[in-house]
What we know:
- Keywords: Membrane, Transmembrane, Transmembrane helix.
- The chain crosses the membrane at residues 23-50, 57-77.
- This protein has five helices and no strands.
- With 92 residues, it is an all-alpha fold.
- It folds into two domains: 1-31, no CATH class; 32-80, no CATH class.
Amino acid sequence: MDELLARATQGVDMDAPDASWHIFWNLMAMVPWAALFWWSLVFVAVGALLGWWRGRVWEGVVWAAVLGPLGWVAILLRSRRPLPPPLPRRRP
């Protein structure tokens, strides 16, 4: 924890009025943004696949985008969308 605090406060004048912003930006610089982006895309793709399987593609995308892998559970707990009844055959 001391190492994390040292990295977050590196180069920050603690008496400056905007010291908290500098600490915040130092912490944001340590976040692996590329990995988070790609994992989010994987979660949404799997959510779309599960939603397609359940007949609710957009619900799967939204649940996965909002909750990540927990959204998969949300879409799996929903019932399948019932298919509409078939149209009557046309008589020639």
